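Q: Convert this sequence to structure tokens.
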Amino acid sequence: MGNSVAWPLAILLVGHRFLFLAINGDVTDDFTTVYSALRRFFEGVPVYNEVYHFVDPHYLYNPGATVLLSPLGLITHFTLARWAFIAANLVAIVASLGMLTRMSGFRLRSIVFPASIALAMLTETVQNTLIFSNINGILLLLLVSFLWCTINGKPWLGGVAIGVAILIKPLFLPLLFLPLVRKQWQAGVGGLGIPVVFNLIGWFLVPGAGDYLTRTMPYLAETRDFANSSLPGLAAYFGMPTGFERLWFLVFAAFVAVAVLGLLRFRNTEPFFWAATTSGILLTGVFFLSSLGQMYYSMMIFPMIFTVLGRRSVFHSWIAWVAAYLFLTPDTFSSTRWPDIARLVEFFRSTAGWGLLIVVTGVAVAIWFIRDLRSGSKNTNVPAPGAAETGEQKG
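A:
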């Protein structure tokens, strides 16, 4: 019965997002910037020739990522290239949700899979990934593949997945913590080796590769005060005193540290919960505390949200769902009665959502630790029902 409702909704929402929202596009266009840079790569024109004081989307990928993405530039028909790129990201999102369904202990023919697709299509992060034609869908698939490999003892394959993700977006670098604490050194080799090797190749192949160091990296180091949902972005927008910004940085960094360290005791007994929650809080910390955080990054928190299907999850708390609404909602906020308040909510709702998730995760982990300590539990129980390695498939 449930599938007869969920699958039609999932299919119709996927079709609408691809055929209408994504194909129509928007003023914000991430694809043209990337495609133009890759065409310059093949034409022998310096790739990093952006005028960075304009607010248009800029090409910010390193030389190694340019080499990796270069096959897209071989498609000389722009529209075909764009549609294929959107389709690849859409397929990657659906595949990721399928993997997360299985990792949560449910069959693909259960209602969980189509329901997760339908719900994902309603979020800002999926809609704008497709509309802006960016690479977040493929990055989500790399992330989920890395988590699966970490949980199931496939460190070399996991290293390739996270290495490619780091090459494209270095914000994934903190996730090497996961295989490190499980003594999977091979993942570290791939995670660090792939970016190094590709960038060495790119240094010799990419026209004007040196400009990435002299022009692009200084721009990346700046904290912009527009289209930036991070804490430093909020501080720049309001002109927050440096000392006050650093204080808040330390407070939220402490919550992240408490959460990550407190979750370590679950890495063997509840591996999916541990890996998904730890990756989620690490990435949320990066979004919130780094120089640039954009709302559509929130797709990378999907694995953490899937833990709601297990016996233990931060998302068993209603407060976490308030946070999720703030960083996932596609709602727009405007008001003729309270224009200033509406403007702030529109610009910084994801900032509030990420910050709230960091706090609620730190508090939840601390409460679990105290409760287990009081009950004398050392968390030596068998893996929680629904853990991927039990082989149990529900639904």
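Confidence is low (pLDDT under 50) at residues 379-392.
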